[in-house]
Structures are given as C-alpha cells and as structure tokens.
Amino acid sequence: MLDWFYDTSILITLPVFVGGFVVVSCLIVVALRPVVNRLVADSKEWDRALAHVIGTFGVFFGILLALVAVSVYENFASTREATIEEAGRVGALYRATTGLPEDLGDEMRQVLDAYMHSVIEVDFPEQASGNLPEASDTQVDEFERLLHAVEAETRGDQAEFEQALATFDAFIESRRARIDATALALPPLFWLVIWVGAAVNAVLIAFINVSNRRLHLLMAGLLAVFIGLVIFVTADTDHPFAGAISVGPGAYERVLEQLIDARDSD
C-alpha cells in the first residue's frame, strides 16, 4: 500500500486520498443522522454540550496536526539541506584536487565523477525505495585511499593537502546526513493517533443536529477535504526521498554539469 502511494502520480493519489476521505466522512454522517435524531430531546442542550466537546477536541487535534506537519517538514528541509551541502562539498573537493600532485589529482577527479554518477543513478532510486544506499561506498573508500597517499613536499603542498582533507571530512558528514535521512519517518503510533483523531472528528461532525441533510453533508465534506489535504501532504513528505514531494538529485546534477563535465570538456 505504501509503495503504491509513493510510486503513483500525485494526479491519482491526491484525488483518491482526499476523495476517499470525503466519502467516508459523508457515509458516517448518513449513518449517524438517524441515531442523532432519536437521541436529541433538547436541541439547545445538545448543541451546547456538542459545541464544548468539538471545541476542546478541535484544539487538541489541530495542535497535533500542526506539530506533526511542522516536524515532518523540518525533516524534509534538513534532508534537502544535507543533499545541497553534500553536492556543494563534492564540487569544492573537486576544485581542491587541482592543487594536489597531478597524477593523484587526475585519478581523484575521475573517482569523484564516478561518485556523482553513482549517487544520481543508484543512490537516489535506492533511497526512494527506502533502502540504505551502498553503491557509492566504493568511490568514497577509493578517494580516501588516494587522499592519504598524497605526500606534501612543500609548505604550499601541505596547505593544499590540509584544505582537501578538511573538505573531505565535511563531505563525509553531509553524506552521512543524507544517507541517515533515508530512515526518517513518523513512528507508527503517531499515525495511529492521527487516524483515530480524524475518525473522531468525522463522528463529532455527524453528531451535529442539522435538519437539512444536504447542508450537513456539505459541512462534513468541506472539513474532510481540508483535513484530508493536511494528512496527505504530511504523509507524502514523511519520506523525504519518495513521493511527489521529495528530495531529488538536482543539486548533484547541477554540480556534475556545471563543474565536472564542463572541466572534462575543456
């Protein structure tokens, strides 16, 4: 089910998700209206008690949805930032190799080129599927081996080497942050609370004593559309590398095109 949700176009998943939300809410209204009509003896007392319950529930449910949505978006934003930082540091590392011995520098740049292609073509599809990527590990290990093979003979060479080493360490940190983000997701208990809250909200709306059934269905449907949209966006953003709202390899493609491929073509 989750694979279908993240692999299918938003033009299909969004209408199906929100439309299903609306249909279920309206069915709950239709099912509970006869029960409410039998139970309500004093409409003023019923409305007063229900308004208090809905108001209290709405505050807590609204706060829950807001906090969850903000938390998910922060995870998404931090993942995107990590990918941009990693791509930028690969570019900085590529430039730093030009100050190292020519034979090792050329080999390092070839490794970085292979690394970028591996990240774009293998790592991101793997992360979109929820799997921790391993394809680019080979290039990272090879680059580290070449970096530590550098022998700085002059003070200038030593400065260039230390700069490259610092850039490599920063690159490793960003890469680790990007890989760790593969497992980012809300705990199942949070989703359970959200779905229970949405169900309770639909039931409380159905409890409103409205004589006009069409108006009652319209009220329930409009509220269901909004809550369905919030939950849909939250669910789609929950996995940063999958779904319509996802972090892609665009930053790496730009670095590869503007720096690495451009230099190779000169």
From TrEMBL:
<feature type="transmembrane region" description="Helical">
    <location>
        <begin position="12"/>
        <end position="32"/>
    </location>
</feature>
<feature type="transmembrane region" description="Helical">
    <location>
        <begin position="215"/>
        <end position="235"/>
    </location>
</feature>
<dbReference type="Pfam" id="PF14023">
    <property type="entry name" value="Bestrophin-like"/>
</dbReference>
<keyword id="KW-0812">Transmembrane</keyword>
<keyword id="KW-1133">Transmembrane helix</keyword>
<dbReference type="InterPro" id="IPR025333">
    <property type="entry name" value="DUF4239"/>
</dbReference>
<protein>
    <recommendedName>
        <fullName>DUF4239 domain-containing protein</fullName>
    </recommendedName>
</protein>
<keyword id="KW-0472">Membrane</keyword>
<feature type="transmembrane region" description="Helical">
    <location>
        <begin position="189"/>
        <end position="208"/>
    </location>
</feature>
<feature type="transmembrane region" description="Helical">
    <location>
        <begin position="53"/>
        <end position="73"/>
    </location>
</feature>
